Amino acid sequence: MKNKSNHLLLASLFGGLLFSFLFWEERLAINLLIYSIFILTVTYLNPEVSKSKKFKIYGLAHLFSAVLVVVNNTDLSIAAYYISLLVFIGISHNQQIRSVFAALLAAILQMITTPFNAITNLSKISVGNFNMKPVFRLIKYIFIPVIAVIFFTVLYAAANALFAHYVETILTSIFNFFEGVLHFFFKDLDVARFFHFCLGIVLTSGLLLAFLNKTVQNAELKATEQLNRVKLGAKQKTLWYLVIETFAGSLLTRKMALKTEYITGVISFVALNLLLLLLNVIDISTLWFGYKPAGGFSGALHEGTNSLIFSIIMAMAVILYFFRGNLNFYSKSKTLKTLAFTWMIQNVILIISVLIKDGYYIEFYGLTHKRIGVLVFSLLCIIGLATVYAKVAKQKTLFYLFKINGSVWFILLLAFSVINWDVAIAKYNLSKSEEISLDADYLLSLSDKTLPVLDKHRSKLHYTSPKINDDRETAKPQTADFYGNQLDKRIGYFKERYEEAGWASWNLQDWKAAAYFKIKQSK
């Protein structure tokens, strides 16, 4: 145990040095891959971490996300990197965890408690017959008071401007004092770089030093995937029963309360099915077949799309409410389940309508991140409805939904990170420039990865009038020369950034763009 603590603390110190070396004044690129290889290696060599199949799967998933950062270097790939790293850390130190969400929560808890974890490990260090436990016993007594003082100082500073001024003055004086001491002993020390190194130690410690409290893991172990009928005692009443009892007094028995809930559910689902049927009939008759865009086309497609998506989420919430407990086992629940399944099918039809609206918008105005987002969110809603169906049909628990959907979302996050969306959007819109209303301003707002594509098609970067009769408001159109100048400025900014970047910022997309424009790094 002691040797293990020593090694992990040394690894955290080395990780701080590596962090400072890789990330100081650099962009996130191949440095993330190198840092991940270090974290994966140290975690693998930790004897207390089981090298299970789950550990290997999530380790490879994170390594895959790190490679995607180097290959695509998109915001989505970087987000996938951080999420997969936290999931891997959560799973590594809590391998009985079964869901992605619980792994994320465990990892975040471990990162938050980094000071406590570091002190715990430091107290186990021994050099010969000398150990550090007595030294850190005092820290244990002052740790919580210090945190409390910092917390309330922030609150009081936010409430009183004069108090905040005094606090700022004191902190500035303390900082200047330590900066002077550091410069006295180390004349060439870069203070900002030193604090960056300290940040690296803290982050690395948070990833490597396990939190000994297994609260999240133990809490999740109590969760089951299969619903069981709960026989309530005389004094154990459901919340729904208590609500009914408030209005009906003691006239209802527990069985009647369940029957009342069943009748309420049937009435609710009949009414909701009729309501959604009317909406779906309108959409199918006006949108699915023979749709012809007219004035107000943009507004007609935009209007209500967010509300429809929200309604689908609420639909799943209503189903989960009614099928949360013993109603699943009620002898007459077949009718209620049939109505619920019908409503799920109608919600799928509603999702198809949303997809058709989005498809029309893409057809006439091209791709954007938001329109792709609608497609992705619609896919997630369909998956959500499918798992809700399985939950009702097979009498599964809410934990089952979290587990399945968490895994599916994690897989889709990695899968969507494979695509370079900015480049895909630019290529698609420019290839359809004769068919869509090309938004040159939007294309020029995309990342530097699209610069070679835009440069190849710079003649297409001009205002194009709508291909349909629409009354949407558009930005004031500019001339082709204006957009050409804007593109040249973007290329110039990219050239400056790329020449100043170090090797740690290398990624495939920047390298391709630099090769296209014949730019070389100066470092």
UniProtKB/TrEMBL annotation:
Spell out the Pfam families in the cross-references. Answer: DUF4153
Print the keywords alphabetically: Membrane, Transmembrane, Transmembrane helix
User: Its domain of life?
Assistant: Bacteria
Task: List membrane-spanning regions.
Answer: 7-24, 30-46, 58-91, 97-118, 138-157, 194-212, 266-288, 308-327, 339-360, 372-390, 397-421
Write down what this protein is called.
DUF4173 domain-containing protein
Q: Which species is this record about?
A: Pedobacter petrophilus
Lineage of the native species? Bacteria, Pseudomonadati, Bacteroidota, Sphingobacteriia, Sphingobacteriales
